[in-house]
Design goal:
The longest helix is centred in the middle third of the chain and has 29 residues. The chain has a 6-stranded parallel beta sheet, with helices on both faces. With about 425 residues, it is of the alpha/beta class. About 40% of the residues are buried.
Amino acid sequence: MKTIKAFAVSLLLCALTIVGLHLYSGRGFSAEGKAGTWVSDAKSQSGSTLKKMAADEKALLIFGSSELRHGQGSGFQGDTIFDGADMNPVYVGKAGYQSLTHAITLGAVGSQAANKKAVLIVSPQWFKENGVKSTAFEAAFSEEEYIALLENPDISQETKDYINGRLQNIMADNENMSERVKKVREWYQPKDDNTAEQPGWLEQKKADFHKVLLEEKNNYKVMAEALMDGISNHKSKESGAKLSQATWEQLRKEAETEGHKLSDGNDYGMFDSVYKGTYQTLIANGKHKNPKYTLDYMEFSDLECFLSICREEGIEPLVVILPFNGYWYDYTELTAEERSVFYEKIRCIAEDYGVQCADLSGNEYTEYYFEDNSHPALKGLVDLNEAIYEFYRKVCLLTGLPRKTTHIRSANESHR
């Protein structure tokens, strides 16, 4: 009898623990405080978490890759600049996330975006000849968000078919992932007509349970990673302050001062510590010459897919074009003329879709703009965040007219 009682008590405690975890993880995070600019796979792959954050009327979904993490804690990245401001950025992505991953996420959560705006930061490194690596895409892939996209009636079948085809292609060498995606389509993609075979009662219950289980699992991951990273809904400052032009000019002055300390010891426009730690040896050995970039790569089609979803969801996007580090890419022998072709193609796509474009490409040779061979820092981060904030505040914007993009501090025409 004692054994039975002990087992019953253990079972009850286990049940209470599970319910407690469910209630705790289900609260999610608001877009305020550090949760918004927290860079995390768990957060980016949890559609339910992002929906709750995007529902904040002051939230702005910002899709990007490794530049979201670089510079955090420096005083020039959004985690500091927007702390206490009247805009709550919600970072989505990290290294390895590109247009296709972001298109799926937007198709999953965009309907919940209260202010119907989103930012996509486009890195020129996305357009290398081999494109996004299948391993990187698979690591960034969210089954929960893919299901939500398939079930979203706002997304056209044409768009879904494009994404399905891309997944089939990228995952062709991963049998396990391919089978998972195939099963997801069978369970969750709406059938075209009444004659199509519908899943039976048992299969439908399996699908329902699988979806709930995915959401719960992802919520637990978010909770666990947040606890490890010290992220909470606590606000370090009262929010609501507007950022004036004087704020940005002061940040640029501070970036200039910091740049003198960090970047004056090399000719490649990057931090001295990074140059000495990595790039000095590469240059001495003539490494990383002639990188392969191509205009035929599917990344451009994936970018169009993202913009198509914006259109279908009624979301106004801002496309931010990051610059190549001109000094480094001159060394690699990818010429300025070759680089300009990629900028122009991105501009043309933005123009075709009639979307805003913050073009930072004129800053290839701007002092104190890069941390390394690609990531913006100091002035680069100030310009990036100002462009995002101005878009949010509807200040100094131009609509998608031919060649008329919003240039932010890109007038530096000559080399140092």
